[in-house]
Write a structure and sequence with these properties.
By secondary structure, this protein is of the alpha+beta class. The chain folds into 2 domains: about 280 residues, DNA primase, PRIM domain; about 100 residues, no CATH class. Helix content is about 45%, strand content about 10%. The protein is built from 15 helices and 11 strands. The strands form 2 sheets. Strands 1, 2, 3, 4, 5, 6 and 10 form a 7-stranded antiparallel β-sheet that branches. Strands 7-9-8-11 form a 4-stranded antiparallel β-sheet. A hairpin with a 7-residue loop joins strand 1 and strand 2. The longest helix is centred in the last third of the chain and has 31 residues. The radius of gyration is 26 Å and the shape is elongated. The N terminus is likely disordered. Its EC number is 2.7.7.-. It is an enzyme of class 2 (transferase). This is DNA primase.
Length: about 425
């Protein structure tokens, strides 16, 4: 998310210079909600106290030797009406934060780093000549958007999502969450890198966010964050490149082997091939054939598939049959010495491996949308298959249920009063 500061009488007005997707997201919220919706949601449902407890990490003034200035050095950013973006806002208590949110009714709230000094006073420190305004802590975060899979999904595009393509996000959660908790492989950073405190959040309309909250994760430098992001960076494809993934070495890295065997390959073969009809048209199977470096094999398969356009039995048999043909061609004895068997793994990785927004993970000062902002709800990674993005409550639905519940409580209360009155009258 690139933001550009604008000197317009205040030091914290911002415009979004390049992130068109975020602008579209905020505009979509405006169509759904109005000021009354936001006022009711922030006033009755938004969990400010829980967010303060989370982001304080025990530095709440209630524990000995805690840093009472910790929460006050956390950056918050707000998207307001008329594309006004406010950065470097900070608050010393949950009540201060709650008051500002209820007064301004932001369309979006973003959370940034903990800085060395109060972000709202950064210019005072700059004028003093002391260059002390730097980020000192920030959760290790990951951002994955379903729109980045538009080249491998055919049911939806852009921010649209359905139950046919959402499993791509489910697979991403499984791969990244497992590796973060079992991470012991980057010796240059630490000999033991397993994380425990990991929060997964539905990003609101088109993806997932991951917040790694362990103390050692929050204190990573930009260089260390970059090393972790690069560790996960396998998908490097573009529309102009036939080679979509980078799998170095004669054999897969142990982490990639586990991900491929336990998660990616079963998902690709048992679900994705059929749910996205990957072999149903020439345009779709050509994307797969283009990943085969040996043109003779690709040409042979192309000839078989063009001559046999009708499925042999069911739709499932049709797609699986073509995938098995491809695997048999690449794994046949005459190709054992050519290294073409790695091509099967590359195809599976290209279609299923998590696609990270690398810049979000690499830099401490990057902003990320707050959980529960626009009802960005948590996802349990142990039950992520059960999460249904099509049933996530909207603001309007939540407030309807809240009002319905209040009306029912009022009716029950009135009935009770009538019953008590009758009882007293004998």
């Amino acid at each position: 998310m690139t933001r550009e500061e604008v000197e317009n009488g205040t030091d914290d007005m911002l415009i979004d210079g390049s992130d068109e997707q975020q602008r579209q997201d905020v505009n979509a919220v405006r169509h759904e909600v109005n000021a009354n919706y936001l006022k009711s949601y922030y006033g009755k449902l938004f969990p400010v106290a829980d967010i303060h407890k989370w982001l304080s990490y025990g530095n709440d003034g209630k524990h000995p030797r805690c840093d009472e200035s910790y929460f006050g050095r956390r950056e918050f950013s707000f998207t307001l009406e008329n594309d006004v973006y406010l950065r470097f806002r900070s608050y010393n208590s949950p009540s201060e934060l709650e008051k500002y949110i209820n007064d301004s009714l932001p369309f979006q709230i973003d959370i940034g780093a903990v800085y060395s000094v109060d972000p709202s006073k950064r210019f005072a420190y700059a004028q003093s000549g002391d260059n002390v305004f730097i980020p000192v802590e920030r959760e290790l975060v990951f951002d994955m958007d379903i729109s980045d899979y538009d080249d491998v999904r055919y049911c939806c595009s852009g921010a649209d999502v359905c139950l046919e393509c959402w499993p791509l996000m489910t697979i991403s959660i499984k791969v990244i969450d497992t590796s973060l908790r079992d991470f012991v492989l980057i010796v240059s950073i630490t000999d033991d890198f397993g994380f425990n405190h990991i929060l997964w959040v539905y990003s609101g309309c088109h993806g997932v966010h991951c917040w790694v909250c362990d103390a050692k994760a929050r204190r990573l430098s930009n260089e260390q964050r970059g090393a972790i992001a690069d560790y996960f960076h396998v998908y490097k494809g573009s529309e102009n490149s036939n080679k979509k993934v980078y799998l170095p070495g004669p054999a897969l890295h142990p982490f990639l082997t586990t991900s491929y065997t336990n998660v990616l390959k079963p998902f690709f073969e048992e679900k994705l091939i059929c749910s996205q009809n990957l072999f149903s048209t020439e345009e779709r199977y050509e994307k797969i054939l283009e990943m085969i470096p040996d043109e003779s094999i690709a040409s042979e398969l192309r000839g078989k598939w063009q001559d046999k356009k009708r499925p042999p039995n069911s739709k499932e048999d049709f797609h699986i049959h073509r995938w098995e043909q491809l695997k048999n061609s690449l794994q046949s004895g005459k190709h054992l010495a050519t290294g073409l068997r790695r091509c099967i793994e590359e195809i599976v990785f290209a279609y299923t491996y998590p696609r990270l927004d690398m810049e979000v993970s690499k830099h401490m000062n990057h902003l990320l949308k707050a959980p529960f902002c626009r009802v960005c709800v948590p996802i349990d990674p142990n039950r992520c298959e059960e999460f249904d993005p099509t049933t996530v409550p909207t603001l309007s639905r939540l407030l309807e249920e809240l009002n319905s519940g209040a009306s029912q409580m009022q009716i029950d209360s009135e009935n009770k009063l009538k019953h008590d009155a009758k009882s007293k009258l004998g």
